[in-house]
Amino acid sequence: SYRKGGYHAVRIGDPFSGGRYIAQRKLGWGQFSTVWLAYDTLSSSYVALKIQKSAQQFAQAALHEIEFLSAAADGDLQNTKCVVRLIDHFKHAGPNGQHLCMVLEFLGDSLLRLIRYNRYKGLKMDKVREICRCVLTGLDYLHRELGMIHSDLKPENILLCSTIDPAKDPVRSGLTPLLEKPEGNANGGGGSSTMNLIEKKLKRRAKRAVAKISERRVSMVGGEASSKTEERSLDGIDMRCKVVDFGNACWGDKQFAEEIQTRQYRAPEVILKSGYSFSVDMWSFGCTAFELVTGDMMFAPKEGNGYGEDEDHLALMMELLGKMPRKIAIGGAKSKDYFDRHGDLKRIRRLKYWPLDRLLVDKYKLPEAEAKEFAEFLSPILEFAPEKRPTAQQCLEHPWMNVVSTLNKNADNVESHMRNLHIEG
Ligand code: ADP
Ligand code: MG
């Protein structure tokens, strides 16, 4: 797709926006874009440069994303709301056409990479709690203050905050080097046409910087030898994170698409086409929280013999969460495709119920109490009736969010004990 209308081929050291930004290395890519670590010569800091494919529809999508990112930045001057910050945007002319580029604050690895890095074993509950607090802070801000629906929340679109300066230690700026082979130098092809002297100079300078970076590529988080393969400690990794990818965002009162969300994180009302609101993000949040705890996707529907992916998805939901209330099952524009008039699935007749709290204990070996607490937090978020789901704000106030770990509890006890002694003394 490095052709007309497609991706822009970037080489390390390429200048953007009149030389302000210098490409350093590729950070990731999506359907519509490639994302690069770039050096911002104006602020002397590192940024993420998202370069959109050039064809008209991609440019349109980028303008859309810029609109939503700008709104999010305007309402969050302190940059504390757990949403990625848009710093700048501009057009870049390349051999494949005009590319819209977004300059974003530089973040670390996605939660998907974190889950993979942890070998799909699930994270400790306290880590999950920290992540959930950030994501809920972001959602609360988007929903309540901006009236915005993200519509594509999932582990891939939540990035850890990178606490490390990539200039000082690019290797530890995330988990990346452990998870993937080094990416080599960009993608070849493309190539720029006329380059003036200043650009050439900038390029050479950036290349030297990059050479330094690649010398140290092989270390690992925490500096341990990379041959250790069994348990991977996440101790010391800061779980602060931010919501990214506003390419599918919409306004609560102005929606653009009927079919939203990535399959596995899609809410039942979207499948049934019953209309949706902010609570679709809460559904995706619930699926994401489950995945963090277990390492498995909550729902991974597959098309089967005589039924489609949608119907399997609905069946999986009911097996875990109980039967869908009839009114909801038959209330959508697509209900008749999947449900009979009693509210039973048409083609998948026998469901194997496995309630959430039992699943967490039996399959994922969570301690009973921990499983119960977490299931109590999660179940309301996965209500079939969208209006019954708690808001992000309500979730933030839920007891599970405010559990102090046993360790802290002990510390608190000691402290209050000492306080008592002090008072008595
Ligand atoms: P798309 O809309 O094409 O899916 P995303 O915005 O999700 O694009 O970005 C694609 C990938 O690029 C992400 O999954 C992540 O790996 C990387 N990325 C995006 N934004 C940043 C950022 N601000 N900092 C670091 N990496 C980023
Ligand atoms: Mg994405």
From TrEMBL:
Listed name of the protein: non-specific serine/threonine protein kinase
Enzyme Commission identifier(s): 2.7.11.1
Single Gene Ontology MF annotation: ATP binding
Single GO BP term: spliceosomal complex assembly
Lineage: Eukaryota, Viridiplantae, Streptophyta, Embryophyta, Tracheophyta
Family of this protein: Belongs to the protein kinase superfamily.
CDD domains reported in the protein's UniProt record: STKc_SRPK (cd14136)
Catalyzed reaction equations: L-threonyl-[protein] + ATP = O-phospho-L-threonyl-[protein] + ADP + H(+); L-seryl-[protein] + ATP = O-phospho-L-seryl-[protein] + ADP + H(+)
Root EC class: transferase
Origin: domain of life: Eukaryota
Keyword Nucleotide-binding: yes
Residues that coordinate or bind ATP: 50
Family annotation (InterPro entries): Kinase-like_dom_sf, Prot_kinase_dom, Protein_kinase_ATP_BS, Ser/Thr_kinase_AS, SRPK
Keywords annotated in UniProt: ATP-binding, Kinase, Nucleotide-binding, Serine/threonine-protein kinase, Transferase
SMART domains per the UniProt record, alphabetical: S_TKc
Species, as recorded: Raphanus sativus (Radish)
Pfam families in the record: Pkinase (PF00069)
PROSITE patterns reported in the protein's UniProt record: PROTEIN_KINASE_ATP, PROTEIN_KINASE_DOM, PROTEIN_KINASE_ST
Start and end residues of each Protein kinase domain: 21-401
